[in-house]
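Reopening this ticket.

The earlier resolution said the output was attached, but the attachment link was broken on my side. Pasting everything inline this time so it's all in one place.
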Amino acid sequence: MKLHTKEPWKLQDDGIFVSVVCDDSMEILPAMRSSECKHDFRRIVACVNACSGVPTDELELNEYEQYIIETGTRIGELTAQRNELLTALKGIRDLMGYEWLREEFNEARDVISRVEKNHD
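Inline output:
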């Protein structure tokens, strides 16, 4: 049995016609007038890419609502935990002044910097 075309799918829009293609530019949904279907094609591409890795049979069962809710909750919990740890590390950074801890201080400062960049 052939599986669907591998993600990611992309919207191809030249201003007149719009189509859906995959990475190797193979056309998945044929070109149509942009004004007639651009928004539908955008939604199709977004949904297909968001469901990457989920078997179609499972999607058709409509049982992913709880999974999505649980995943969102877990992401929220992890974000809160990360923020708490970042705050604690910043407190340690601000108290550091001991020369013999300079290496640990530099490492903590680098970690804080990386997390802050990814935080925004």
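Reporter confirms the inline version is readable. Helices lie at 34-50, 56-60, 64-95, 102-119. The first helix runs from residue 34 to 50.
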